[in-house]
Every structure is written in C-alpha cells, then in structure tokens.
Design goal:
Layout: H1 3-22, E1 29-31, H2 33-40, E2 47-50, H3 54-58, E3 68-69, E4 89-93, H4 98-109, E5 114-118, H5 121-127
Parallel strand pairs: 1-5, 2-3, 2-4, 4-5
Helix pairs in contact: 1-4
Amino acid sequence: MSVAKYLWVAIVKYLRTLIKIFSNSDEWSEITVDELFDRVNSDQPPLLLDVRFAEEFNDGYGHIQGARSIPILELKTKLEELDSFKDEEIVTMCPGGGMSLVAVDILTEAGFKDTKSLHGGTDLWNKSGYPTIKS
C-alpha cells in the first residue's frame, strides 16, 4: 500500500471518529457488507449512493451494480435529484466509511428517513469478494 493510501485511510478513520463525536450519530445506522449483499439481492433493494469521486467510481475495482454516483462534494447541490427516495432505504458508501457518514448526516438533515452508511466502505466490500462492475 502506498504512503498516500495509508494517509487516506488514517484521515478517513479520524473523520469517522470526529463525525460520531460531534454529529447526531444516534440517528445514524450502519449496514455491514454481508447485510448489504443480502439487501442488494432482495426483492426491494435499497438505493445505493456512492459518494466517492467519479474516478474512484468508474475505475479501480469499480462499484456495486446499480449504485448511483454523486460525489460527496456535490451531494448538497443534488439533493433534489433524490427527492423521490425520501421515504426509501438509502445506503451510502465511500472507500472507508468516513465520507458516507457525512452523506448520511447531509441526507438526514434534508429529511431523508432511512439512511445507512456501509460499514468499512467499498474497500471492505471489495476485500470481502463481493462483485463490482466497471463503467
């Protein structure tokens, strides 16, 4: 693993800690990669909201089939696109879970009722051997 990757992982873990301390984290819930795999293959899968940067979504190990890409820096300006999902289950994801917790906070503040963050992020999804696709 490169130095940049180690730094990124450290930053994400630090952000997760700060977010849980200073936000309304009691309103959040997380979903494990195993639970998400089952939910994705159910009759009523959740909306998968991938908040990684576009390059990460399209390249590397790819993304979960059916996931919608809205980078975290664009989420607040694109909330209107998600209005029809306000009462639906939404699972947010990023590489390690830090940005997806921020996304859950943004969505919750905007009135979305059932938001979850993918615990361990897309990195853990990939390490667990679950399928991804590339654009």
